[in-house]
Amino acid sequence: KIDRLHAAEILDSRARPTLAVTLTTADGIRVRAGVPSGASTGTREAVELRDGDRTRYGGQGVRSAVAHVNGEIAGAVTGRTFASAADLDRALIELDGTGTKSRLGANAVVGVSLAAWRAEAAVAGLPLWQYIARAAGTRPTLPVPHFNVVNGGAHAANSLDFQEFMLAPLGAPDLPEAVRAGAEVYARLKSRLATEGYTTGLGDEGGFAPALDDPENVLRFLVDAITDAGYTPGRDGVAIALDPAASEFREPDGRYRVAGEALTSDRLIDRYEEITERFPVWSIEDGLAEDDWDGWVRLTARLGDRIQIMGDDIFVTNPVIISEAVGRKVANSALIKVNQIGTVTETLDAMRVCRDAGYTQMVSHRSGETEDSFIADLAVGSGCGQIKSGAPARGERIAKYNRLIEIADENPELPFGLPWLDARTA
Length: 426
Ligand code: PGA
Ligand code: ZN
What we know:
The protein has helices at residues 63-77, 85-96, 106-123, 128-136, 175-195, 215-228, 265-278, 293-303, 319-327, 338-341, 344-357, 374-382, 395-410, 421-425; strands at residues 2-11, 17-25, 30-34, 144-151, 164-168, 239-243, 256-258, 261-263, 281-285, 308-311, 333-336, 360-364, 386-388. It is α/β, with parallel strands linked by helices.
């Protein structure tokens, strides 16, 4: 039973306003949730409400979303008893009434949903990850962290077109060792960049943002850093995952601009194939733009039996869009972001659609984050086996990795990693 629901306007990691939602239950349990926010967003994402009042935060304020939580949503849920957090999510979806949460604001709705799941877990006396696993009917697993150590695209001021270059310690024996590998390679990468005269300033997700243009040059740095740190580049040690976020560098004529060259979808797919032959890249997210579905079919046919082909902007954690993609053989994996769809319940629905279709999933942060670590519990509870939360640096990124370490430490019986890796991409 909800006794009090309250939102406030706080800051995210990019100094932009976002919401903190506090929920108090009748038995005196009090929880809090912070709302994330993206920069390279998909056009079909649930709609974040911004005030547009230029005299405050350049129009980015979220007072209207805050007012919706404290007014209409609090009015509808306070004093009511919900059998589960999923029931409360359904009430929120109904109250908003739009398919995209545009009336109350996806940022308002997701804050309440995250708080509700945390509160229900506390009422049930379970850690959040265990409550999620029980609700979803999944087998809890500690995920392989994917550390975004070089930032480009919409996340950095350099001229690098690909947005994310991630370290994936697939060969690590356990979660703490995976974190150690990420941190050690990150440190080696920093020295290498500095030695060769590149800046080691950080992008939005804590990765370095050097003035490198060609993705292949970045990949060379990564492989060297992995070796410097004493690990084996590849799936037995530390592999690499890419998120080019290709919607961001697609030209109006449909071609993709990479390091000054304009490439058709097929030429870009050739480039990816070459990259996977030369470098230990095991996963490519948003390799093509969100509206290039025909290109995605060809990309999946060409590389989908060797590597993970993951959809982010194209799927926006939407179970309906993912179902359509399954039917058209688009991708073999989905990135999962709670605020893209707006509630935890719909997020778990999207993950179920993936599981039923044999699509892998990776739980993800946003480039704008708070210290909230909900996604660490979501990744463990859903059993999906992989998470990305930026570099092993910056407090809002580390909060998630440290929560994973805490869960691993308290639950030595939990399995770690990607049990399906060999079957999918042998
Ligand atoms: P965003 O980027 O949070 O800025 O949308 C993350 C991603 O593209 O995966
Ligand atoms: Zn992405």
